[in-house]
Design a protein that fits this description.
By secondary structure, the chain is an alpha+beta fold. The protein is built from 22 helices and 34 strands. It has a nine-stranded antiparallel sheet, with helices on one face. A six-stranded antiparallel sheet has the order 3-4-5-8-13-18. Helix 9 packs across helix 11, helix 11 packs antiparallel against helix 13 and helix 19 packs antiparallel against helix 21. The longest helix has 21 residues. The chain is globular, with a radius of gyration of 27 Å. 53% of the residues are buried.
C-alpha cells in the first residue's frame, strides 16, 4: 500500500481556531440546553469537551425526546431503543411496495426490554466510528449528579449479532415483553444437560430455571433469541395471570456480570407473518447447527467499538478501507481470544470483505439486503478509484460542439444578489461551482482569456464567502462545533430596491435566523444551521475553491484557514480536533453518507437523498488536495469518494438482477431517499420520476462517469426521458438538460441531438 491514514490521528483538514479565519463565533438558541440533557449526567463532560457528532448512526439518542420509540436507532441487525432504564430490542421484518421498502418493527408490541433491577439515569459515555457506549447510573433523584455509581452499561456496535449488557453492583436484570416468552435453559450448554423450561403453556410449571445459556422464544413474533450469562444465573419465571395477558417478565435477582442476547431463528415455527417472504428476499435465517455452534463459540468475545483506516494501493487505482473492530474476551482463558463474529452488508461483500474472514452459514435480513456473518476482526474493502480526476474519462467526440457551447457561455455571470452574497450558501455554491467548471472547460480548450475572466469572477465571488463578509456570513457554532450560515432575510422591496439581507448590520451574528428554535429556523437556508446537507452545500464551494487552487495559488494562501474550516466541517479525519466532529457525514459501516441534520429525531432514522451531490463534495476535497500538493487531504477525499460511489451504486442505482432490495421496489430502478429503515421512490420536493432519477445525477462533472453506471443509464433513460417530456416543471425548472447529459454516458450522438 501507499500512504495510509487512520481516523483517530490526522492527515488532511488542518487545524486551528475558527475565529482566526474571520468566522464569528456564535451560540445557539436557549432551547439547545434541552438537547444537552439527553447526553445524561455522565455524558455532559464528554459532550462539552468535543464537537457534537451531528450525523452518527446513533444520533436519535440525543435528538427529540431521545428515549421514545421515535428515537430508536438502527444497529443492524436490530432496532434498539435506549430508555432511562435500559434497552428495548426488536428484530425487523421487511415490508415493501412499489413506492418504498422498509425495516418494519414495533418496539412496543414486539420488543424485548433488557434492564437492570433498579431505577437509573441514562448517559452517553463514549463513541467511536462504529459504536456508541451507554451507561446507566443510580437514580438518586438528582439528574445532574454525575458521581453516582454505574449500574449497567452497553456498547452498541454496528454489525454486532449480539446485544450486550454489563451489570454491576449486584443490580440483577430482567427481560420483559408484551409477547409471551418461553425460556428454556440449556444449562451450561454441554451435552447431556437436561433443559429446563419456563413455559406458561406447560402442564407443570416451574418457578425458576438455572444455567448460563438459555433460549428465549417470543411466541407472537416467532423469534428465538439465545441468552448468555457470564457467570451462570438463576432466572425466576412469573407467569401471566390468565390467557388474556401475554406480557412476560423474566428476572435474575442479584446478578452481576455480562448478559448477551443474539437472535438465532427469526422463524421458529414458520408461522410468523414475516416468514412468508416475497420472492427474491433472503431466506429466513437458518437454525443450522453450524450457525448455533458459532454463536455459542463466539459468545464470550464482545465487540466494544472500532475505527477506520485507509490506504491508497500502489499496484492499482484503488483505495483499501478497513473497519477495525475493538473487542474483549468476557471470560479470559489461557488460550488466545478468538476474533469476534461480525455481519457484512451487501456493499462490503461486493468489495471483497469475504476474503478477510471465515464465512459462517446463515444470514440476517434487512431491507437493503442480507447480512452475512463472518468470524474476523475487520471488514476490509477494496474500492476502485479513477486515474484522472480533473479531466474527461473518455476522449471528446466532437470538440467543435464544446467550443460552440463555450462561445455561447463565455460571458456568463451571476445576478447581482449572488455576486454580493445575498442569498443562501447552497445556491451560491452551485453558481460559483458552475463558473469554476466553465473555467476548466475554457482551459481545456486553450481559451486563456476566457479562462482568466472566469477565474477573476470566481476569486471575487468565492472570496466573499471565505472572508466571512458575505451579507449572509458563515459563522462558527460554538455549541455544536461547525461552520453554519447565519441566514439572510432576503428583501428586494418587490423589485423596488437593491436586493439585500434585511437582517444585516453590525449585530447580525448576534441573532442568526438559522440558529433559532423551531421549524422556521430549522428550514432556513435549507437547514444549514441545523446541519442539514453540509456536504452538499460546502461541496460546491470546495469545488470552486479547488479550481482556484489549481490556477491561483495566492488566493488559496490568503484564505487557507477558512478553506480548512470548510474541509474540517464535512471531512475532518482527526479525532483530536475539538472544533469539529470526525467525518461528520460518512457512515463507514453503512457505506455512504447521511445528510439529515439535528432538528428532530425520526423513527426511520438517518437519511440521504442526493448521492451525486455527496460525491461532488468528496471529489472537490480530492481535487483540492491534488491542486495544493496535500497528499493526506487528497487521500481523505479519495477515500470518501470511493466509499460514496460504491454505496450509491449498491443502494441507489438499482440495476435489474443485481439489486438487493425486494423486487417490487427494486423495479423502480432508483432509490430517491434512503433512510436507516426506509427506502423511498421519491424526493423531498415531489414524486416525479424525472426528479428521482435526476437528483442522483447532478452535478455533472468529469467524476460523473465514475459514479453513474452505463448499465443503470440504459435501464433508466427511457422512463427518465418520457417523464421529463411530459412534465412542464422538468423543462421550466432546468431538469431537462440532465436527460441529455445522462444520454452522453451511453450514446454521444443521441446526446448531441438531445441538446439541440
Amino acid at each position: 500500500s501507499g500512504v495510509a491514514g487512520r481516523a483517530r490521528g490526522g492527515g488532511g483538514g488542518g487545524g486551528g481556531e475558527p475565529q482566526k479565519a474571520g468566522f464569528t463565533a456564535v451560540k445557539r438558541a436557549s432551547t439547545f440546553a434541552e438537547n444537552k440533557k439527553l447526553w445524561g449526567p455522565k455524558g455532559q463532560k464528554l459532550m462539552e469537551s468535543q464537537a457534537w457528532p451531528t450525523h452518527a448512526f446513533w444520533e436519535n439518542l440525543i435528538l427529540g425526546q431521545g428515549m421514545d420509540t421515535d428515537s430508536a436507532i438502527t444497529v443492524l441487525p436490530y432496532i434498539v431503543q435506549a430508555t432511562q432504564e435500559g434497552l428495548v430490542i426488536a428484530y425487523p421484518s421487511v415490508a415493501s411496495s412499489a413506492s418504498q421498502s422498509m425495516n418494519a418493527f414495533d418496539l412496543d408490541a414486539e420488543g424485548i426490554r433488557f434492564e437492570a433491577l433498579t431505577k437509573t439515569y441514562r448517559s452517553i459515555v463514549g463513541y467511536s466510528e462504529l459504536g456508541v457506549d451507554i451507561a446507566w447510573s443510580f437514580n438518586d433523584g438528582h439528574p445532574d449528579n454525575s458521581e453516582q455509581e454505574i449500574v449497567s452499561s452497553t456498547s452498541l456496535v454496528q454489525g454486532d449479532p449480539y446485544v450486550t449488557m454489563n451489570i454491576g453492583a449486584q443490580a440483577g436484570f430482567r427481560l420483559s415483553s408484551e409477547q409471551t416468552m418461553i425460556l428454556v435453559s440449556r444449562g451450561d450448554n454441554k451435552k447431556g444437560t437436561e433443559p429446563q423450561a419456563c413455559d406458561p403453556n406447560a402442564k407443570k410449571r416451574i418457578s425458576t430455571v438455572t444455567g448460563s445459556v438459555f433460549d428465549v422464544y417470543l411466541s407472537q413474533s416467532d423469534h428465538t433469541y439465545r441468552l448468555y450469562t457470564f457467570p451462570g444465573t438463576t432466572i425466576t419465571c412469573p407467569y401471566p395471570k390468565d390467557v388474556n395477558h401475554t406480557k412476560t417478565t423474566l428476572t435474575a435477582n442479584g446478578f452481576e456480570g455480562t448478559v448477551r442476547l443474539a437472535l438465532h431463528n427469526n422463524c421458529t415455527t414458520g408461522l410468523g407473518k414475516h416468514c412468508f417472504l416475497p420472492s427474491g428476499l433472503p431466506s429466513p435465517m437458518p437454525t443450522s447447527p453450524e450457525f448455533q455452534n458459532y454463536l455459542d463459540a463466539q459468545s464470550h468475545v464482545q465487540l466494544k467499538g472500532g475505527h477506520v483506516s485507509w490506504a491508497a494501493s500502489s499496484s492499482s487505482p484503488s483505495m483499501e478501507v478497513s473497519l477495525q473492530y475493538e473487542y474483549t474476551q468476557i471470560q479470559p482463558s489461557k488460550t488466545t481470544s478468538p476474533p469476534p463474529m461480525i455481519l457484512l452488508l451487501p456493499h462490503q461483500v461486493s468489495a471483497g470483505a469475504l476474503d478477510h474472514g471465515e464465512r459462517i452459514p446463515g444470514s440476517h435480513r434487512s431491507m437493503i439486503g442480507p447480512q452475512i456473518p463472518i468470524v474476523g476482526s475487520e471488514i476490509r474493502m477494496t474500492l476502485p478509484m479513477p486515474d484522472n480526476i480533473w479531466g474527461d474519462q473518455r476522449p471528446l467526440k466532437d470538440i467543435k460542439v464544446v467550443q460552440e457551447g463555450l462561445d455561447h457561455d463565455k460571458d456568463y455571470d451571476l445576478m447581482y444578489q449572488w455576486k454580493k452574497g445575498v442569498g443562501d450558501p447552497y445556491n451560491a455554491g452551485k453558481l460559483n461551482a458552475r463558473i469554476g467548471r466553465l473555467a476548466l472547460i475554457a482551459n481545456q480548450l486553450n481559451e486563456t482569456e476566457v479562462t482568466e475572466s472566469f477565474l477573476d469572477k470566481l476569486e471575487e465571488y468565492q472570496g466573499l464567502w471565505l472572508s466571512g463578509k458575505s451579507p449572509n456570513p458563515l459563522v462558527y457554532d460554538e455549541d455544536m462545533g461547525g461552520v453554519v450560515s447565519c441566514g439572510c432575510n432576503f428583501d428586494s422591496c418587490e423589485g423596488k430596491c437593491t436586493p439585500h439581507c434585511a437582517n444585516g448590520g453590525k449585530d447580525q451574528t448576534k441573532n442568526c435566523p438559522t440558529l433559532g428554535p423551531g421549524a422556521f429556523s430549522a428550514g432556513f437556508d435549507f437547514g444549514n444551521g441545523y446541519y442539514n446537507d453540509h456536504h452538499f452545500h460546502y461541496g460546491y464551494h470546495l469545488y470552486a475553491t479547488a479550481v482556484l487552487a489549481r490556477f491561483r495559488p495566492k488566493f488559496i494562501e490568503k484564505y487557507k484557514q477558512a478553506i480548512s474550516l470548510l474541509v474540517r466541517d464535512v471531512a475532518n479525519p482527526n479525532a483530536g480536533d475539538k472544533h469539529f466532529p470526525m467525518f461528520r457525514h460518512m457512515d463507514f459501516y453503512i457505506g455512504h453518507s447521511w445528510a439529515g441534520g439535528v432538528y428532530r429525531s425520526f423513527a426511520n432514522g438517518r437519511n440521504q437523498e442526493s448521492t451525486s451531490e455527496a460525491v461532488n463534495c468528496w471529489y472537490a476535497i480530492a481535487l483540492l488536495g491534488d491542486a495544493t500538493g496535500d497528499k493526506a487531504l487528497y487521500e481523505v477525499g479519495m477515500t470518501l469518494l470511493a466509499m460514496e460511489v460504491h454505496g450509491a451504486q449498491t443502494y441507489w442505482q438499482n440495476i435489474n438482477g443485481t439489486s438487493h432490495y425486494d423486487p417490487v421496489f427494486a423495479d423502480n430502478g432508483v432509490t430517491g431517499i434512503l433512510w436507516s429503515n426506509l427506502a423511498q421512490f421519491q424526493t423531498w420536493f415531489g414524486l416525479f420520476t424525472w426528479a428521482v432519477n435526476g437528483i442522483q445525477m447532478l452535478p455533472f462533472t468529469p467524476i460523473s462517469e465514475y459514479l453513474i453506471q452505463p448499465a443503470w443509464v440504459k435501464q433508466q433513460i427511457k422512463g427518465f426521458t418520457k417523464a421529463c417530456s411530459e412534465s412542464a416543471p422538468c423543462k421550466s425548472d432546468g431538469w431537462s438538460p440532465l436527460v441529455c447529459m445522462a444520454l452522453a454516458m451511453i450514446d454521444q450522438d443521441q446526446a448531441l441531438k438531445c441538446t439541440r
